[in-house]
Amino acid sequence: MRKILLVETKLHLRQWPNMIFTIGLPLALLLGLGSLPDLAKPNPGMGGERYIDTQLPAQMTLLAVLTLACSVLPAVLVTYREQGVLRRMSTTPVAPGRLLAAQLIINLVVGTVSVFLLVVLGYVVLGAAMPKQFPGFVLVFLLGSAALLALGLVISSIAPTGKSAPGIGSVVMFPLMFVAGMWIPREAMPDALRAVSDYSVAGPFAQALRDTWAGHAPQPLHLIVMAAGLLAFGGIAIRLFRWE
């Protein structure tokens, strides 16, 4: 497992343009949108919270993780399959679970770097709030990110070609962003859409991030949904995994 992680880390570092895009896009959006004066004012519809203190950083965190899960991660594994790398690995003692776990761990580290920069630069440049419930924030980020990355592993398992992987990822990514409140705040959603959001993994992830950023403990239902998503998507990815 250590050898797999070492080799995959080296290969990921060679793909530095993807890493810069994954880290840079949410950060640029945070700093650009956060500089708008209206977003720095207390919002009565959000209980007096400022948009830049909870909603915006939570959504940019979600965007960073979804970009990794639905775009970067599937492209890597599907390309390995097309190039015959996985076929050669199938002759070694490497089990599918270990390879998938390594991909999940490496992308989780990249996501952590992205979120660290979001939090620090948001605070330094915009004066945005730091997560006030920090232990809960760390728990939510790790659990929610792992669940969404496991979904990315499912995409990797079913995508037939490297060219099709981003398309399938987009079909998954944009609806998840919608139900998570990227365009319509969850508070303004109709009851039916809010119910879908509550069980979409992305919705609980975004809401739990907002809660911990504002100093509240994450809701047990949100943690359960994310944990269930991690187990379900991880199991499906291993079951559907193909070496070639």
From TrEMBL:
Q: Where is the signal peptide?
A: none
Q: How does it sit in the membrane?
A: Multi-pass membrane protein
> Which keywords does the record carry?
Antibiotic resistance, Cell membrane, Membrane, Transmembrane, Transmembrane helix, Transport
Identify the residues that the record assigns to the ABC transmembrane type-2 domain, covering every copy. Answer: 17-244
The protein's location, in the record's own words, is: Cell membrane; Membrane
Q: What is its main location?
A: membrane
One family name in Pfam for this protein: ABC2_membrane
Segments traversing the membrane? 20-40, 60-80, 100-125, 137-155, 167-184, 221-241
InterPro entries to which the protein is assigned, alphabetical: ABC-2_transporter (IPR052902), ABC2_TM (IPR013525), ABC2_TM_bact-type (IPR047817), ABC_2_transport (IPR000412)
**Family assignment?**
Belongs to the ABC-2 integral membrane protein family.
Protein name as catalogued = Transport permease protein
